Amino acid sequence: MNNPYVYAPYADAAQKPNDLRQSLTKFAYHWPLFVLCTLLALAAALFYIKQMNPTYVVKAKLLIQDDKEKGTSDKEDALMQLALSTGAKQIESEVEIIKSRPLIREVVDELTLWTTYAEDLSYKSRDLYETTPLRFQLIEGSRISGEHKFKIHIEDDLRLTVTRPDGEILNATLSDVFVSRFGKWKLEPSPTFKSYIGKTISLTITDPEEVVTAYQSKINTVINNKAPILDLSIKDEVPERGAEVLASLIDTYKRFNIIDKNKETESTLRFIDERLSSLTGELTAVEKDVEGYKSSVGLTDVSSKSQFFLDNVQVNDARLNEVNIQLNVIQGIEQYIRSETNPGTPPATIGITDPSLVNLVEQLSELQIKKDRLLAITPENNPLFIPINQQIVSLRNAIKENVGSIKTSLINTRNQLNQINSRFEAGIRSMPSQERQYISIKRQQAIKENLYVYLLQKREEVALSYASTLTDARTVEQPYYGDPESEKKVPIIIALLTGFLLPIGIISGRASLRSRVMTREDIAAVTAAPVVCELMEDRNRKGIVVFSRTAIGEQIRSLRTSLLHIGNVEKQGEVTMFTSSVAGEGKSFVASNVSVSLAAMGKRTVILELDLRKPQISKVLNLEPNKLGISDYLQGKATMEEIIVPSGQPNLFVMSSGATPVNPSELLESVRMNVLIENLRAQFDHIILDTPPLHLVTDGFIIARLSDVCLYLVRHNVTPKSELKFIEESYQSGKLPNMGLVFNGVNMDMQYGYSLDYGYYADQSANRFWLTAAFRNFAARF
Fold first, then answer.
1. d(CA 115, CA 102)
2. What DSSP character marks residue 574?
């Protein structure tokens, strides 16, 4: 319910609850807390820096060669140009491979990185990777899970004291074998063993899989935009360990790279060996046929004409055999290209003379191997596979077109060679029968021999290539490191941020956890009822403060001005009701001071002590309790004139509560109460009603029907926040006429967003020094 007549002198402050200046003012009040937190954070940062071990950055550079055109004579082949891969895409794939778990796991196992040795010093420990006096040796064991930390004290040249993770202490020697959950192990002395006699070191055994995961995140990779060079780096307290990790990783990657490249060569060798195995038996059988035929017929030589036919037939058959081999290879490639699911390793290109097709098949083979390597470490839906799959599709289409044209050419060549063979065979038929048979047998022998020699030659070439295969990766810069990094700035910056943010969090958290109303923002967040006025806390505990030279006296006058603008100003005898939710919110104090202020203006004012259960007005005004009061009037035991008494202030009269009745609510609902208010309206300018707490008893709602204005008291740090919902319900229901809120007892310090200087109203001698305001309520500023 909106009230257009409510005057709010502090409305501007309520309209901007999130105003930056107001927030800064509130936080500035707690400056000692900021100073304390900053000093503690800086002290902790300095202690951390003092105990922190220096960190080194170890770097290395690796060159990864791009895919290049290999032996092509057709420089204008558009399809092959489209099939070319870019270096950046390849390097991105190689980065994933370098940081893959299989490679890093091999590095971790090779360097035994899952064991760490340290010496405990004052407030810190020193890593003994290079200078450890003992080396862990696993004799027999299973998978290590979790972390196992042992304390080892070196007594002398032979004796050790080993403290297990469970606290058990063992007296042992260097020859003893220990048994733990992960298996049997022992300790081997190193060259630095004697220098650690009498000292204690820590041995930590960690799950290798956890170590692999840690090194995956510790190893950083940066791709050079101008060249296919990969920058590798790692941070480590022990620079020698970091250098060994990078060197081992590079060597492992090169070794894996060579293994992958040799897979294609192995498939070619396997094809040739299988073919040679079958040709060996065939050639032996043909040679035996020649030998047997010569022995049976006594034939030792043939005529020159027969020799001519035989030589030409052999040459033609050799060419025909080469064509057939190429056709077989072409058919294998064609079958591979047509296979859509899991085609396997691309076939060998042995015998193919077309450089364009050979190059395309080699590129396809390399891409397929690269894809298989990525599939071993990366899900198939990874975006890295998109460019690789696109290149494979382009290459397969290009190969399909090349295979078609080459196959047609080979078939035509085979038909021509068959026609030539037919002519030679016709000439051979005209020879004598024995020579003809001999030439036929000799022809088969020559075919097998030529094919066998050809395959042997190719096998040697492939074997030589297999033995001399080089990796595509080359080390540009071996692992190196410089001076340790200075990490002092980071803890200092974190400490300063902590010293700034932690108090903000404490102040905000403390404010959010408070269950009582502390600021106007708390009120505005729950209820739409307007705040008419704010009254600061009366630290002097005076009853009547209107005539004192204080800020609260001026605020009471401001509330009086607001009251004059509420309701119907033309109506005779305006009735103003003061109430609150619970006891102790200061409604009697405010009602008394407003009454005195109105009377001081010359307004005839009367204040009714309607809290019949616990009256407080007489105490505030320092009046003697009247024997007769409102309860007596409502019961017909007294007249109105008998219960109206002067307050001692000009124009101000008081009607006390009288004797405590047994039925106050019923009395307030009586007709005599209505008559009383009407008579008072005719005699007074203002009638002030001090009512009981509204949420505790129903008297307030009964009296509200007789009021023109209702001023609802909410007290700082007294009114529970839960009562604000009740206030909102009362405001929205319209049961309280012209309802406005008075925020009472406010501690108007900077901690609640107030920045006005109320020292104007105070004794000037109290504010002689500027430090007085800065250190006021010093303990509360924390």
1. 19
2. E
Report d(CA 206, CA 146) in Å as an integer: 6
pLDDT at 363: 79
Is residue 310 located within the same domain as residue 183?
no
Same domain, 430 and 574: no
Compute CA distances 432 → 303, 308, 427, whole Å.
Answer: 11, 15, 11
What CATH number does residue 721 fall under? 3.40.50.300
Q: How deeply is 453 buried, as exposed, middle or buried, from its count of CB atoms within 10 A (0-12, 13-18, 19+)?
A: exposed
Task: Look at residue 528 and give its three-state secondary structure.
Answer: coil
Same domain assignment for residues 582 and 724: yes
Residue type, 632: D
Does 363 map to a domain?
yes
- Measure the CA–CA gap between 219 and 103, rounded to whole angstroms: 12
Task: Give the burial string for 87-106 (b: 16+ CB within 10 Å, else e).
Answer: bebbbbbbbebbbbeebbbb
> Which region among 123-137, 208-222, 281-295, 638-652 has the lowest average model confidence (pLDDT)?
281-295
Residue 220: its pLDDT value, please? 92
- Tell whether 287 and 390 lie within a shared domain: yes
H-state helical runs in 20-137: 20-29, 31-51, 78-82, 87-98, 101-111
State the Cα–Cα distance between residues 532 and 772, nearest whole angstrom.
31
- Are both 305 and 190 inside the same structural domain? no
| Angle of helix 355-375 versus helix 87-98 axis, rounded to 10 | 30
Question: Which of 173, 188, 206 is the last residue in one of the domains?
Answer: 206
Contact 436, 281 (CB under 8 A): no
pLDDT digits (tens, 9 = 90+) for 533-548: 999 887 776 778 888 7
User: 200 and 321, same structural domain?
Assistant: no
Q: Indicate whether 659 belongs to any domain.
A: yes
- The structure's pTM equals 0.49
Contact 618, 541 (CB under 8 A): no
Domain's final residue, options 424, 447, 470: 470
Across 89-228, the runs of DSSP E, i.e. the strands, are 115-121, 124-127, 134-141, 147-154, 159-163, 169-173, 178-180, 183-189, 200-206, 220-223
- How many contiguous H segments (helices) and E segments (strands) does the chain have? 24, 21
Confidence of residue 580 (pLDDT cuts 50, 70, 90): very high
Question: What is the pLDDT, as a whole number, of residue 79?
Answer: 31
The answer to whether residue 153 is domain-embedded is: yes
State the pLDDT at residue 767. Answer: 45
Domain total for the chain?
A: 3
| CA gyration radius, the chain | 51
| Model pLDDT for residues 425-471, shown as the tens digit of each residue | 666 665 555 565 666 667 666 777 777 777 777 777 766 655 555 56
| Residue 604 falls in which region: left (phi positive, over 0), alpha (psi -120 to 50) or beta | beta
Residues 575 and 459 in one domain: no
pLDDT band at 527 (very low <50, low <70, confident <90, very high): very high
d(CA 227, CA 476): 12
- Same-domain status, 595 and 744: yes
Q: Does residue 353 lie within any of the structural domains? A: yes
Could you report the per-residue pLDDT of 469-501, keeping only the tens digit for each? Answer: 556 778 888 998 888 876 677 788 888 898 888
Question: By residue range, what is the domain housing residue 135?
Answer: 115-206
